[in-house]
Design goal:
It is built from three helices and 42 strands. The chain is mostly beta strands. It has one domain: TonB-dependent receptor, beta-barrel domain (Maltoporin, Chain A, Beta Barrel). The strands form seven sheets. The chain has a 22-stranded antiparallel barrel. A five-stranded mixed β-sheet has the order 3-9-10-7-8. Strand 24 and strand 25 form a beta hairpin.
Length: about 775
Amino acid sequence: MTHSKYGFRLSATAAAVGALLMTSPIHAQEEESETATQQAGTLERIEVTARRTVESLQEVPVAVTSVSAADLQARGITVLTEVQQFSPNTTLQTSRGTNSTLTAFIRGVGQQDPLWGYEPGVGIYIDDVYIARPQGAVLDLLNVQRVEVLRGPQGTLYGKNTIGGAVKYVTKEMSGDTEFNAQATLGSYSQQDIMVTGQIPLIEDKLYVGGGYANLTRDGFGEFLISALPDQDLENYNKDLWAARIAVEYSPTDKLFFRLDWDKTEDTSNSKGGFRLLPSILTNAPVPDSVYDSYTSLPTENLVEVEGLSFLARYDVSDNLQLKYIASSRESYSPTNIDFDNTPVDVFDVPAIYEDENTTHELQANYIGDAFTVTGGLYYYDGESCGSFDAILGALGRIAFGVPGLTREVAGCNNSESVAAYTQADFELTDKLSITVGARYTEETKEAFVNNGLIFANVYPESGWIPGYVRPAGTFPGNNLVPQVLGQDTNGDSVLDAPSEETWSRFTPRLGLDYKVSDDMMIFASFSQGFKSGTFNPRATINENAVNPEVVDSLEVGIKADLSDNLRTNVTVFSLDHKDRQYISVLPVTSPEDLNQVLGNVGESTATGLEAEITWVATESLTFDVALGYIDADFEEVISIGPGGQETDISDQFAISNTPEYTANFAANYMMDTDVGYFMFTANYYYRDDYNIDETANSLLSQDGYGLFNVSATWESVSGQYYAGLHLKNITDEEYLVGGYQFVTPDGNGGFIPGTGGDNTLIGYYGDPRTVHLTVGYRF
């Protein structure tokens, strides 16, 4: 079989929302692994950087899934969320009201609430740069070499907020040649994507410049059937964004490398409207016929704007020692309109603004000795995360209190500064037995303030959204109507002068053993610990202490075996103990006082499970892949604090969210080498068992088990200059929940008790329906 010089690599079938994010380079050894080494009819060698150095997947004693650029292109995978299909016990889904906010869970650990101040449980990385917030973290894939999913706590090498695991988007360095790539995609719902990328050497073998631009559009899967506002765009689940990126690479010597990257993404897709699972009792808003249809009383306009700059310097001091300096600066701005009740009346409307800025600096050293390797470094993070929202309960105000409206208004910041030192060493005790010892020490200071107050009027960020209901002059933020409830104004100046502050420090170890039974089989066992940052309650209504970090202790035992030249079986068994879980401690909540919530370390959960990944190369043209996940995850304790301060364990009322007991993926790939080019045919069936959207055991927002069937056919010319792909997703048109809101309680008699806003608010958000898209491209 012959291959073009391009191979079956991802030609960037889309770009956006971080798709054109900074691409800091990878060690020079990785250039040889852009297309994994493989002989016809045998298993390929896959290289990963799970331990911050380049290693073979089969030699890394870590549960990690690697999805290559060739696999992504062959299957038409264009966004990060689709990678969940190939990683056991993994959830990567678009969160509720936007196209670009990520819900990520691994082994039952993640982040349910994307509000500022709440930290993620799964770390997202573009190369070695941490993406701190879920807004803008649904990455469309561009310039990718592979995507790695690391399961289990990664606290030693990757730091805080990786207690469930980490998802690492690894990009390619420039080739040094003049390159150009242009492609277009047409598909269902009037999808029209255009992307142009290229690079050019300014000084041969020394200085290169590259960049790209993408524009991605698609009509909505549904529509807003009724809107309270005139002249609104009524498409629901549409897509409208552009992204741009410029990169400069400079290699003054063979040992020294620099890279500077700038990117910007702007997503102006409409705010998503949810599907009403119950008819409204306050207005004429019945259950729509389509799960993609909705109603709204807010503007449909929405924005996610992300911009970043990154810099990398790499110095190969010797054949054994390499030094890296990595710096980044990122900021995002997202004004959003969340209609919780999804009716044309102001039952529970939440216009909100999220703003984030952060800078990072990391100095890293990698040393390879005769019988050991050491990775270590220093890390600094400085981040500001702020926001505001108006919880507008206008209908309740008019009905219950006889006032024009009712608004709970909240604004504040949770800012953090952390420093860390880490090291991990691998020692070969014998030819077969190795030990891994790692540790990280982190010290973090977080300061916060919250303004929270109740206003007997409807208050909006801008006047005129709804006639007759405008923001009173001077009411936001920081005056008597929205008093500060965190921090003390000790000197009579601005409330910002004395925010609440807390400092934590944490030592997170890792200890592992691996034994090479043979050249093709390794067994390993490890203990690892990770922690999720402490925080202040961003919805606080009274002065509250900060909550402490969450901690996960994890044990793993696994085997990685190439049982023959064409059969690979990797299996991991794990258990974890998730302690000091941060939860709202006044539970459950069903009244207009829902927003009077106190945050505390009130939960503990455990999980045990198994993950298996199997590859069988049946012939030199046909390959089968299987990924299986099983997890038994339960709450051991959830403390409810009653009005008198009494504590009650209500863990029997709670379940781990976004975590099906079983996940499975079955995939087949067939390749043909013909006189007119190279064809790849792929098909996969992905199954997710039952799961809850929220943490309530008897949740009304639960999804039955379902399966997705996908088929793709790709072609590349013999020269490699022309390519095309036809991709059919969700062929059986399954409807499945990926998010939702429950503000209603069953009354025990087949009816419901209205919740916040006084209505039966039970809302679901759904994954993509059946789609077809065709991509054609040209490159040189």
